[in-house]
Amino acid sequence: MSGFVTALFGCGQIGAGYAADPRMAEHYRYASHTQVLAEHPAYDWVAAVDPAESHAQACAEQFGVVASGDVAGLSDREAIEVAVLATPPGTRRALIEALPNLKAVLVEKPLGADLAEAREFAALCKARGLVVQVNLPRRADVRHRDLAEGGLARAIGDVQGAFMIYGNGLHNNGTHMVDLARMLLGEVADVSVPAGATSHAGSPLDGDGNMPFSLVMQSGVTVMALPVGFDHYRENALDLWGTDGRLSLVSEGLRLCRFERRENRTTTGAFEIASDDPVVETTSMGEALYAVHDDLAHALQSGTTPASPLDSALETSAVIEAIHEQALAVAA
Asked: Whole domain around residue 179: which residue ranges?
């Protein structure tokens, strides 16, 4: 059986560029969509499209696909069944409308420049009957899924509170981290931005920023989030404190550190978290992008719901919008 005829739209960093980073290659077997599309048997990758035609041409030369500067330049648009949308949000409607026989979309976050645009995108996809996978890779990653499906409780008991670190934009990496909090801890009941908080710049998205905020989950657990400047160092991390231990997802998800609850070394009859003696595990995040594509292929073949579906991503978008609006109000 031949694979789904697929076109990649957007040959920037996540589309293609990260694959050329030798440091990233040490930890990520799949750092860009091109690497997955070139290998996965469920996809018949035929075209790379980017307004920077040199980027599309580089993909064509390396992988033997057709290159084009825009969707109109594809001679066989009717054949495209899957579109990988690694493009800015505002370009996506026109791409979908130009592909009459599209079956599925794998789309980058954010879904829109704001929540209204995200909802419009979702409505278009639903009206077309498309299967949609949003590239929030922890949703498809084996280790993170295990945590969400009971592994977290087995490791540290009931979560009492959590701390989040993110950078490079609330709508950018903040989306990944808020979605991870939802994945592991359930839905968000309320958000807040502290009075006097300021947002600092640093994001690939226009109008984005980085600000502290807190999430109160429906379970009652509070997650405190602090931004860091990626000009100093990179990190997107979640540190969870449970009744029986502590678990930290660090190094942008590549490492999991578990800290046991032990007898307190200074007080008789009390306990402590052994924060100076972690059990360190390398996660499967280096394979997560492949898992995203693989899960979408399975959803198409079986009629099941993808691991990172539209409705869930819209919930995350709504939380991000609420934080953004509060940050604007605080700054006013």
From this structure: 139-285+318-331
